[in-house]
Amino acid sequence: MSAEFAIVYAALILQDDGIEITADKLSTLVKAANVEVEPVWFSLYAKALAGQDLSALLMNIGSAGSAAPAAAGGAAAAGGAAEEAAAEEKEEEKEESDDDMGFGLFD
Fold first, then answer.
1. Between the CA of residue 43 and those of 36, 49, 50, what are the distances in Å?
2. In whole angstroms, what is the distance from residue 6 CA to residue 85 CA?
3. CB 43 within 8 A of CB 24
4. Cα separation of 11 and 92, whole Å?
5. What Cα–Cα distance (Å) separates residue 41 from each residue in 30, 67, 102?
6. How much of the chain exceeds pLDDT 70, in percent?
7. In terms of Cα–Cα distance, which of 61, 27, 19, 29 is closest to 44?
8. Do 25 and 11 touch, CB atoms closer than 8 A?
């Protein structure tokens, strides 16, 4: 098991039990699982997860990417559609130019 997975699992256990996530508690759980982890990782993860609701983070993984374009507004979305069409045309032109390189798969 990797060190990162062990610490993340320990953090999830603490969150599930409603216990505050600290470096000492992460270290205790990981040591109980007989996984060797450098001590610096415990404090890094504890600081990163301090005050975070892990259950909310897990439940909202996919929603952050879809919310950003929706917040841009209708006018920006209409302009973005025109830009996307232009980008697709450029990609198609690029693909066509790649086909004419003077050799083929069976040449």
1. 15, 10, 10
2. 45
3. no
4. 47
5. 11, 32, 54
6. 58
7. 27
8. no
pLDDT tens digits, one per residue of 15-46: 888 888 899 999 999 999 898 989 899 999 88
Look-up: residue for tokens 């086909």?
99
- How far apart are alpha carbons 14 and 86 in whole angstroms? 50
Phi-psi region of 90 (alpha: psi -120 to 50; beta: other; left: phi over 0): alpha
For residue 28 the two structure tokens come to: 């205790």
Q: What are phi and psi of 75, to 5 degrees?
A: -65, -40
| Both tokens assigned to 79 | 């302009």
The verdict on pTM exceeding 0.85 is: no
